[in-house]
Specification:
It is built from six helices and 17 strands. By secondary structure, the chain is of the alpha+beta class. It has two domains: about 170 residues, Nucleotidyltransferase, domain 5, CATH 3.30.420; about 90 residues, Nucleotidyltransferase, domain 5. A hairpin with a 3-residue loop joins strand 1 and strand 2. Helix 4 packs across helix 5. The structure holds adenosine-5'-triphosphate (ATP) and magnesium ion. Magnesium ion (MG) binds next to loops.
């Protein structure tokens, strides 16, 4: 069988996966393994894993067990081992969900705009490419990631719903906010950046209003104008949109379009924007 082409957005809060069969999402919290005396039911995304001698839990169970040291890193680079775990678990979930007996993959992942440089991309590519042995919920899997592409978060979301002319994209995550400008299908570096704040990082659970103010301040410094067409994506996009519209009067939600195996096109919530954009890159690069 052919290898499977996937777009994976391994976020610090949720990993989103898009492919020809549909999409998947799971909570990316990871914690070290601990002995469970009482087996509580946490969530359908709970996973016990072992990779390269490291044993742990992932999913809602890990998010609920932060006293055991949840290791979610709200940093601006994704080239660390947690990303490999997140990507392998995304592959595990996707192939399980759609009953796919495939063990070879061509994937595109994304990096925040600020760290989207040759060094960081090479690091992430080297980390992901190759054959990996992972045990999930007691079942051993051997996955070979044959090809890896790295796209710029926020900017790549453009491909989930391409528009002509100048497009501004605001991708609000848990730890980072990517602000991208695309002009005539090209990423404009000087009007794009990643800011190190998101829904989980501002002091004491920042309100939506504070995050919106931070975004408006940050994008104004990138010389974005009030009447620019701005698209919002990420997990909080629909809740924060009205607050962004107070300044960016023409702000809208970015609705990703996913082309499926049977030729049909489905529309998805804005949280899938980067994953679908990554899949679009993967589909065009690895066909
Ligand atoms: N109504 C809401 N109010 C506040 N926060 C929300 C709401 N809905 C979603 N969120 C937050 O959105 C975030 C999840 O969004 P998303 O999946 O886009 O993040 P991520 O891509 O994993 O993060 P990052 O891009 O920083 O790695 C979480 O921090 C979640 O708490
Ligand atoms: Mg994100």
């Amino acid at each position: 069988m052919r290898n499977l082409i996937l777009g994976i957005d391994a976020g610090n809060y949720n990993a989103k996966t898009a492919g020809a069969y549909g999409v998947d999402i799971y909570r990316t919290a990871i914690c070290d393994w601990f002995s469970r005396d009482i087996v509580d039911k946490h969530g359908d995304d709970d996973m016990e894993f072992e990779l390269n001698g490291r044993r742990g839990f992932a999913g809602t169970i890990a998010a609920n067990e932060d006293q055991f040291g949840v290791t979610s890193l709200y940093g601006d680079t994704k080239a660390h081992e947690d990303t490999l775990i997140r990507v392998l678990l995304a592959i595990y979930r996707y192939t399980s969900k759609f009953f796919l007996d495939i063990d070879r993959f061509s994937i595109v992942c994304s990096q925040p705009i600020a760290t989207h440089n040759a060094d960081e991309k090479a690091k992430l590519r080297d980390l992901l490419r190759g054959t990996h042995d992972i045990t999930v919920n007691g079942v051993h899997k051997r996955y070979t990631i044959e090809e890896v592409g790295i796209a710029a978060e926020g900017s790549v979301a453009y491909l989930a719903n391409p528009q002509l002319g100048e497009v501004r994209i605001i991708d609000i995550g848990s730890g980072t906010t990517n602000c991208a400008t695309i002009r005539d299908k090209r990423h404009i570096n000087t009007a794009s950046d990643t800011f190190n704040f998101g829904m989980e990082t501002l002091a004491n659970n920042a309100s939506l209003a504070e995050v919106a103010r931070g975004i408006i301040r940050a994008t104004t410094s990138l010389k974005w104008r009030k009447n620019d067409v701005v698209y919002a994506c990420g997990g909080v996009a629909s809740d924060i949109l009205p607050l962004l519209q107070a300044h960016y009067t023409r702000a809208k939600l970015l609705t990703p379009y996913l082309r499926q195996l049977d030729g049909s096109i489905v529309t998805l919530p804005p949280v899938y924007a980067n994953a679908v954009g990554n899949y679009e890159v993967a589909r065009r690069t690895f066909r």
